[in-house]
Amino acid sequence: GEARMSLWIAMSRSRYLRVSGTALQCVLGCVALWSLRRLCAMILHQKWRWWKGADDGTKPELRLSKQTMQKARRDRVTLEQEELVCFCAGNWMNDSCVEIWLENLMDTLPDDRRDICFISPSAMQMIPGRWTPDFFVQDWAELRLPEMDLTLMPVNDCETEFSEDDLDVVAGSHWGLLVYFRPLNTFRMYDSLGSSLRPQCLKAASKLSAAFGAGDDFSFEVEGSAPRQENSYDCGAYVCVLAEELTRCFLANKRLMGEGELRGITPEKVRLRREEMRHLAGRDPQARGGAAA
How far apart (Å, rounded) are the C-alpha atoms in residues 171 and 128? Predict the structure, then answer.
């Protein structure tokens, strides 16, 4: 009887060990799978942090994609699927997002309007280079800038010289909007951080004045009433919402926005417009149709 009891105990322990071993394998498998997913998430997270910067006190970085740098002639940009996250709150908008948003704005214009245009962020990145004013007169002739009454130009604070041999060095940390308004022959800068982009915008105005046919008596102004962002990542969205509102004001009143109208561009309005553009770009990677403006 004792022998049978010992045998039964041994068999029970063996079954218990087999069951325990199987359970342990399941637990270890789940832990390994969870760890792998976490590792992949961390790698992707670090990729986005490297590309656009993190909201943790480190300097954000706006990188111009190679594809967009090679499309400096107003070809319609197609947003890559992984770039959609740039429209989400907390992320910095890259050049493709800014360009698509402004392309969408152009889609909303009446068919008979030929006096409003924008210059793409990738084309504006040529300003810090060694190109002379005469170069822009000749090379940008197809934009017909002397015929435009309102021209919208996104500018960032990158001062790296454009190089076709090394496109990855082009970067920046802040977007602003430079506007040329022909009726007043003036370049006006809108900066959601105040006047940090004044040197870059002044250089752009100086290099492009001949291309606009502005002559030597053009004026340069910093709009002191420009709406201010309340975080470190909404500069690109402010540029695009400003462009929309300036265009709307020009179409209705043939003028630029006044101080009271600029106060209407609130952080909440920018947040909502950014969310609308995220949905639009999610449905159509070229954001065609003009529904968001």
Answer: 12
Q: Are strands 175-181 and 150-156 parallel, antiparallel or unpaired?
A: antiparallel
Cα–Cα distance, 99 to 94 (Å, whole number):
9
The DSSP-derived string for 199-219 is: HHHHHHHHHHHHHHT--S--E
The two tokens of residue 150 are: 């309102």
| Global confidence as pTM | 0.73
* Distance in angstroms (rounded) separating the CA atoms of residues 1 and 107: 92
Q: Are strands 219-222 and 186-190 parallel, antiparallel or unpaired?
A: parallel
Q: Which residues does 83 contact at the CB level (< 8 Å), separation at least 6?
A: 94, 96, 97
pLDDT one-digit tens code per residue, 241-292? 999 999 999 999 999 999 999 999 999 999 999 999 988 888 876 665 544 3
Long-range CB pairs of 259-267, under 8 A, 24+ apart, other chains included = 259/225, 262/223, 262/225, 262/226, 262/227, 263/225, 263/227, 265/227, 265/238, 265/241, 266/227, 267/229, 267/230, 267/234
95-107 helix and 267-283 helix, angle to the nearest 10 degrees: 90
Which tokens sit at 122?
């990738």
List, for residues 90-132, the tens digit of each pLDDT value.
Answer: 999 998 899 999 988 988 888 888 899 999 998 998 998 888 9
Is the separation of the CB atoms in 228 and 242 below 8 Å? no
**In the structure encoding, which two tokens stand for residue 249, read together?**
């004001």
Cα end-to-end distance, the chain, whole Å: 89
d(CA 279, CA 250): 27
290 torsion bin: left (phi>0), alpha (psi -120 to 50), beta (else):
left
Q: Where are the beta strands (DSSP E) in the chain?
A: 62-63, 116-118, 150-156, 171-172, 175-181, 186-190, 219-222
Which SS3 state, helix, strand or coil, does residue 188 take?
A: strand
